[in-house]
Amino acid sequence: MSKAIIISGNMVQDHEFIYPYYRLLEEGFKVDVCLLEGKAVQGIAGTKIPPNKDQVIKKIEDVSTNDYQILVLPGGVKAMEKVRQNKKIINFISEFNSKKKVIACICSGAQLLISAKVVKGRKIAGYYSMKDDLINAGAIYTDLPAVVDANIVTTAHYKDMGPWMREVIKKIK
Question: Within the chain, where are the H helices?
Answer without folding.
Answer: 14-26, 77-83, 87-98, 110-115, 131-136, 161-172
